[in-house]
Design a protein that fits this description.
64% helix; globular; HTH marR-type domain-containing protein (chains A, B); 3 strands; transcription (chains A, B); DNA-binding; 7 helices; Arc Repressor Mutant, subunit A; homodimer; mainly alpha; DNA binding (chains A, B); three-stranded antiparallel β-sheet
Chain lengths: 145, 145
Amino acid sequence: MSVSSVGPLSHAVFRVARLHKALAGRLLRETGLHPGQELVLMALWTDGPQRQGDLAEAIEWDAPTMARSLARLERSGLVRRTPSPDDRRVVIVEATEMSRALEPGVVAAWSELERRTVGSLTDAQQADVLAALARLEETLLGSER
Amino acid sequence: MSVSSVGPLSHAVFRVARLHKALAGRLLRETGLHPGQELVLMALWTDGPQRQGDLAEAIEWDAPTMARSLARLERSGLVRRTPSPDDRRVVIVEATEMSRALEPGVVAAWSELERRTVGSLTDAQQADVLAALARLEETLLGSER
DNA sequence: GTCGGATAGTTGGCCGAACAACGAACTGCG
DNA sequence: CGCAGTTCGTTGTTCGGCCAACTATCCGAC
């Protein structure tokens, strides 16, 4: 029973995901960030300081994953965490001035990633692919509940 | 610059991949395996004993990732590794008898994963999605070289 | 007011994943 | 024959990702 015969669609998702993530990693390397960290920073750049929990929810991360990732970003000086005065349990996260220097590189990396992902697809094909992915996402989300 | 605006297609790939992998992890948990290990075992079950390098290539894994994963599987008694007599650098990997007990569960998990991924898609829609993923894979592969 | 439950983050453990650096073994060329 | 270069696998380090267990804080009911 080979993988591709048991689950052709799952296998295809697997393969595309691997390739895409690997490409993202290579492109992002020039910025010095690891894949995923740019999501955190982009969320902070666009939405401003926010509670750690909200940030985790925004990019759909586990709380432990977010905590550790922020600890690393903080250590790199890209992020600042301050306890909220209102509720001493919550932590407010914000991007530092220093992190702003990375923004052009990150946007460039994502643009290039998108360019290389879209490839030579026509607009119509691109719409098809997006629609297909949306269908998959909807199905998978439905399977969670 | 939000992620979805910079790279809508990339973002969609990202999201589907996360959901799919998480679902795979949940389904596989019942077998006691971690996502990825089932790929190794399935390859060994179908193709028999083989060189570690060939195995890594078959499921497109990094050599270090394969080495460590096999070390864990070996520790669990699911896999046996013996040095090749012909070439003392190479290691021959084989699935143990004990591992065979997991086969039904693994196949069931992958079947369920596929079922939940396909969802209520018609055959035609399913073909569309597969074609779309194939196009993406082709594009991404082309971007590697 | 106090005590129990809910909420916010952290930490430990384990895994897959990538890169770099390394040692061991083989191969082929001069 | 000997040595350079290649191939095979391992180890170190650093990540993201998940679960489980824990601490600290807050809130609400009694």
